[in-house]
Amino acid sequence: MSQVHVSQHPLVLHKLTVLRDKDTDHRAFRELVRELALLLCYEATQDLELSAKTVMTPMGEAKGHKAEEAIGLVPVLRAGLGLVDGVMELLPNVQVWHIGLYRDEKTLRPVEYYNRLPTEPTVQLCLVLDPMLATGGSASATVDILKRWGVKRIKYLGLIAAPEGIERLTTAHPDVPIHVASIDERLNDIGFIMPGLGDAGDRQFGT
């Protein structure tokens, strides 16, 4: 699974442990999600296309680089919203497009209820933001939507993945890199990641 990237950064490992703790309150949870998104985005964007650029410093001319790709963030509503602020701290000029999917609790399949993408793609790279890659249904459905839209480069950025979700996403979309902080043991019988961290949306928004 060469397209699966699990961060080994000490700060990611530390913050993820605090995030998992059932005693971490909603405010701290949201802040940790933001910080983890920033760190994971740093790792996920190491292959951005660059062009040469020369600037003038106070001491003279310096040769440097300019990031060329237009980037879009696609948070999967609602839990993916918590990752947006962290990514935007590194990428302030990104476009943000929302796709709404919910998981049918009986079938565990994603159901699309919101999609406001423009008619034509306006970015070269999309980062799909969804904290939990559980069954992989929502992630795969989101990538399906983006590919039909016409985006050529797509990456998944989340916090925790289950082996079942990774298998589903990589089977359906072997060209989509996956960047997460941890791969956990398994899904339980109601489709939650074990040991995971519970419901990421509920813990972010206090519901």
Would you write up a description of this structure?
With 207 residues, the protein is α/β, with parallel strands linked by helices. It has one domain (4-47, 70-205): Rossmann fold. It is built from 6 helices and 15 strands. It has helices at residues 10-20, 26-44, 81-90, 137-149, 163-172, 200-205; strands spanning 4-6, 50-57, 60-67, 71-77, 95-96, 99-103, 110-115, 125-129, 132-133, 153-157, 160-161, 178-180, 182-183, 186-187, 193-194. The longest helix is centred in the first third of the chain and has 19 residues, at 26-44.
Task: Give a topology summary.
Elements: E1 4-6, H1 10-20, H2 26-44, E2 50-57, E3 60-67, E4 71-77, H3 81-90, E5 95-96, E6 99-103, E7 110-115, E8 125-129, E9 132-133, H4 137-149, E10 153-157, E11 160-161, H5 163-172, E12 178-180, E13 182-183, E14 186-187, E15 193-194, H6 200-205
Parallel strand pairs: 1-12, 4-5, 4-6, 4-8, 8-10, 9-11, 10-12, 11-13
Antiparallel strand pairs: 2-3, 6-7, 14-15
Which oligomeric form is depicted?
A: single chain
Any guess at the CATH architecture? 3-Layer(aba) Sandwich
Write down the CATH class. Alpha Beta
Helical fraction equals 25-40%
User: Could you state the order of secondary-structure elements as H and E?
Assistant: EHHEEEHEEEEEHEEHEEEEH
Uncertain stretches of 5 or more adjacent residues: none
Number of domains: 1
By DSSP, the count of extended strands is 15
Bin the strand percentage: 25-35%
Residue-averaged pLDDT: 92
Helix run count: 6
What labels would you give this structure?
207 residues, alpha/beta, 8-stranded mixed sheet, 3-stranded parallel sheet, globular
